[in-house]
C-alpha cells in the first residue's frame, strides 16, 4: 500500500498491481479499493492498475469539511503520483468523481461505469436525504443505508448489498447521497479532451441508462453494454468488463 497527501492534507491510500500504463480506479459509494479486486489481476500484464480508497473509506483519512471538490483533489493527487498519461476509471459515485476530475486532469483516457448522475427529476431525493439524516441522528445506521439503496435500486438492490457492513460508513453514504441529489448532468464541464467510454449493465434500471446516455452525449463518448448484469459487473462480469477496457485502450 502507498499513500499520497491531498490538497487539504488528507492522506489517501492506494494499491498498485502490474506494470505498464497506469489506470487509476475510483470506487463507488458502497466500496473501497478492494471493490476492484477482480480487475487488476486481469489487466496486470499490460497495465499498472492503481486502486485508491476514497476519503473516509478503507485506509484513507477523512477531512473536516466534506465536498465533492475534496474528492476531485484526492483523485488528482493519485494521478500526479502514478506517472504520465494515466487512464481514469470510475464506478458509480467514483464515476461522478472521475467525471468532475477529468475536466482539469491530464489524463490519457476516461472510463465511466454507470456514473452516479441523475437526469431529469429525482422524485423523493430531497425528502429521502432528510429522512436518512433523521435515521442517523436516531442511531439507526442500517435503516439509513437501506433507505439509500432502496431509493436508487429498489428492494432488489437492498437484497444485493451487505447492509450491516456498509452501516459502518453510514455518514459517508449519506453525504455522498446529498451530492448525487444536488448534482445535475448539465453541471459538469464537458470540455474533457481525453477520449471517453461509458459502460452500462444490460439489467440496470432505465434511469441509469438515461444517465449514461446523457453523459456519453455530453462527452462524445461511446457506450458499451455488459450482458446479463447490472451495476455490479465488477463482481459479476469481470471478463466482459476487461474486454470493455482493453478494446477501448488497446
From TrEMBL:
It comes from the Archaea. SUPFAM superfamilies: alpha/beta-Hydrolases (SSF53474). Keywords: Hydrolase. Residues 23-243 form the AB hydrolase-1 domain. One of its GO terms (molecular function) is hydrolase activity. The keyword Hydrolase applies. This is Pimeloyl-ACP methyl ester carboxylesterase. It comes from Halobacterium jilantaiense. Gene3D superfamilies: alpha/beta hydrolase. InterPro entries: AB_hydrolase_1, AB_hydrolase_fold, AB_hydrolase_sf. GO terms for cellular component: membrane.
